[in-house]
Amino acid sequence: MSNVREVGVVYDVKKTSTQLLNKVIHYFEAAGKKVVTIGFLEEKDLGDLVPSYKEDYFCKKDLNFWKLPKASAVGKFIAKDFDYLINLDMIGRNELQAISTYSVSKTRIGKHFEQYSFAQDFMIKSLSETSEELFNDIKQYIK
């Protein structure tokens, strides 16, 4: 963790609370790390969500026929060479696992899903039922 400079976080906007997302961001920023997030919203458009330099979003209109994110929507995020890419996907969503798969990050970390074994470099077999519990499990391994 001491050599980590930049962290990316992938999450489902509807299933991850703003409180948890802020907790994740604060955890890394308190340790002097730069954090960038990308959230998937399962809607036709982003609605009130406004991307910024630290937060990005994509939605259904940004997916192709196979429910994979289009490069035009997520290209900037997946091209970023994060030291850690934390995927908070709890159910094995194709849209979120694709971000990990395409990412050029040094270490991609997320929950273990047999069908997405190629998506993460470090997979955690967790009995967690919430994104917060998953993040607590992840923290144990990255300290």
Overview of this protein structure:
- There is one protein chain.
- With 143 residues, the chain is an alpha/beta fold.
- The protein has a single domain, classed as 3-Layer(aba) Sandwich (Rossmann fold).
- The protein is 29% helix and 22% strand.
- The chain has 4 helices and 6 strands.
- Strands 3-2-1-4-5-6 form a 6-stranded parallel sheet.
- The longest helix is centred in the N-terminal third of the chain and has 13 residues.
- The relative contact order is 0.18.
Provide a concise account of the structure shown.
The protein has 143 residues and is α/β, with parallel strands linked by helices. The chain has helices at 18-30, 71-78, 94-102, 131-142, and strands at residues 6-12, 34-41, 55-59, 84-87, 107-111, 122-124.
Helix content percent band: 25-40%
Mean pLDDT: 94
Q: Roughly how many Å apart are the termini?
A: 6 Å
Described by strand count, sense and barrel closure, the largest sheet is:
6 strands, parallel
Quickly count the helices: 4
The CATH class designation is Alpha Beta
* Mass-distribution shape: globular
List the main descriptive attributes of the protein structure presented here.
143 residues, alpha/beta, 4 helices, six-stranded parallel sheet, Rossmann fold
Question: How is the secondary structure organized here?
Answer:
Layout: E1 6-12, H1 18-30, E2 34-41, E3 55-59, H2 71-78, E4 84-87, H3 94-102, E5 107-111, E6 122-124, H4 131-142
